[in-house]
Amino acid sequence: MISQWQLRAAFARRLSDMYGREVPAYTTLVDVSHEVNEDVLRAEGANAERLGTISRVTAERHGAIRVGTPQELEQVARIFGALGMHPVGFYDLREAAASAVPVVSTAFRPIDGEELARNPFRVFTSMLTPADPRFFDADLRARLDTFLASRRLFPPELLTLADRAGTDRGLPDEDATRFLQLAVEAFELSCEPIDRSWYATLEKVSAVAADIGGVRSTHINHLTPRVLDIDELYRRMTERGIEMIDTIQGPPRWSGPDVLLRQTSFRALAEPRALRAPDGSVSSGALRVRFGEVEARGIALTREGRARYDTLLARVDEQAAQHPTADRAELARTLWAEDFPGSEHELARRGLGYFTYHAAADRPLGAPPTTLGELLDQGWVRAEPIVYEDFLPRSAAGIFQSNLSGEGSKNTDHEGAAYDSGWLSDAIGREVLDPFALYERQQNHSLDHVARDLDLFAAPR
């Protein structure tokens, strides 16, 4: 039997090979990421691996795909479920983007610490929202629903094998090979001609809507390596003549701890596509829908820590609006230095970041204190940061937006259709998990061990 994590690792490798053939600049991105990671490891030693071993970081990828209907998303959930990946988090990019991005999203990923260490492959999966009248009037929605209902993204054989792998937690060798072949093929860029008129109609609403609902297949939109110094990668990619988007999304580069997620990408490339005219003739054209993203991951923040982060982002927006010629990154660094913990220790003791805790081997003698802050301050426990495994809606929307050819259209006279985590859970028949709850469970499990090791009456908080 090929286990689920082995299937996941093999799928990530095959997908990476396929995407590198389709988008050669992605291979350059991976090569530069490896170079930067090796340089950081040489310069920083063991500290460079504080948020993951170099082998994990080097192998790490997240992909992004887009689908059109709850039924298609349910099928995606079955395919990734075969790989031991669960839907985690609900992201509403309709509200996070200034441009028209009519999608809601979740991310499929492993949730167990051991599974994440084996292979942390994730897929950020967006679904079109035809029911939202701000983007689609009744006529266009009806046409779009009809088009989406008429297509089939995934062959029945793939879904049957996926269900078997999910039930049996793996597949025999021959079935595993076939499953991987079909799964990778499902996300290749199709050569089938695109109805130029229909695509253009949707593109007036949103380039994202056209990429999802204007074609009869899905495809991998980007595949993202992880890098230990994203600013250095940005510089080196630019030196190689590859056009990057204008900014690095997420927290600023500063002297304090890395938190959450920083992302950037090279700009969407003009790729040749076959286009069918109304008279049935086919010509060669080009579409810009796929790009190369890269990420640097930091420490997962608690709800309170995340609220602090969101408040700081809002303050940066305010100051940038008041001082349009100022350097936004410098404004952010100044605000972070004023109002965000400058060390992992402070992040932990103030309950703003998630950590696993362990009784220190060289802890003091005598009776230990009972609060977590005192245990940390007095050297009774040590804190190991928990890496942030998820996404930021504003950053994801910023990446989408930076790679769009136009703003699209959004009628704000209408009220948006309601989508939330509960709706998405019902639509795909699987609970969309709360990422905060996953991190808290991991942290609390370690605190229970601390209580036993230190013979405390209750786990410290």
TrEMBL record:
Keyword Heme among record annotations: no
Cofactor(s) in the UniProt record: Fe(2+)
InterPro entries (UniProt xref): HGLS (IPR009770), YdcJ_bac-like (IPR047869)
SMART domains: DUF1338 (SM01150)
Keywords, sorted A to Z: Dioxygenase, Iron, Oxidoreductase
Recorded family membership: Belongs to the 2-oxoadipate dioxygenase/decarboxylase family.
The name this protein goes by in its record: 2-oxoadipate dioxygenase/decarboxylase
Organism phylogeny: Bacteria, Bacillati, Actinomycetota, Actinomycetes, Kitasatosporales
